[in-house]
Amino acid sequence: MANPGYGKRSAPDQHPRTTHDFAHLPPREAAIAAYIDRLPGGADISVKTLAKTLPYGQCALRTALNNLQKAGHLRRGREHLTDAKGSRWITRTWFSRTARDDDWWAAFTRGDVPEAMADVRKETRPPTRSRAHILLAALGRTAPVLSLSAAECAELAPLLTEWFARGATDETVVRTLTAGLPSPVHHPASLIRRRLTTKLPPEPSPARPPLRILECAKCGVPGRPEALPGGVCGACRGEHAPAHSNAPLHASAVRAHAAEIRAAMDQRRYEPDKTYERTPV
């Protein structure tokens, strides 16, 4: 395993695992991808560590990982975190069993992951009781006067589901529904319905998407996703820089270039695989 906060990071909304996930890759890349896919989150997937386990040298592994990035299974970059320890950039390596195109990775970098295809597992699984239904059915164990029938649990479950959608925990719900009960309780279902309606918690504030930057697989230079098709920058693809124009840049382009310059400066200033606190200006 890598140091806490590093190592393999699984991309969201992947398809169920099958025996043909990497059939489109060359044998070496397919074997390495299948091995990485089965590693847990946080596993060290650096070239040096993989070379100690897999029958390939570091050069072969570095080439294979670059090919996996080109095929859409891998992206390297950094993510900006802010917590009690301060603000810092940490290195990230994201892996996806499901191959993704450049547009998907660009949306992921912005924190705007597109909706995945319908999960076939949901169609094949037998219907099960929801989390809300299970909690309501078990409520009588904590407060016998609040015992409900199966029909009442099914009727009240949608109200409780909204609580969970707003971040309420099971403990919070049980405490709210069982505290200060009148004696006697004539209509448990009516009392629970009233409390679920009148004590509904407020909607949580929308979470800010994480700030992410992708890096070129070959030279490591950071850049916008659209400037790194296949995870490789234009310079490493052999493209020549466009001729300079005297036309003024749009404000959004200026901000984007400034962000790239700051990220490049950070990369040269900081050692890889370490975290640093950003000094407030």
Could you walk me through the main structural features you see in this protein, from its secondary elements to its overall organization?
The protein is an alpha+beta fold and 281 residues long. It has two domains: 8-112 and 212-269, no CATH class; 124-198, no CATH class. Helix content is 39%, strand content 11%. The protein has helices spanning 27-37, 47-53, 58-70, 102-109, 120-124, 131-137, 139-142, 150-165, 170-178, 188-198, 251-269; strands spanning 8-10, 74-83, 86-95, 211-215, 222-223. It has a five-stranded mixed beta sheet with strand order 1-3-2-4-5. Strand 2 and strand 3 (86-95) form a beta hairpin. The longest helix has 19 residues, at 251-269. It is elongated, with a radius of gyration of 25 Å. Mean pLDDT is 82; it is low at 115-126 and 270-281.
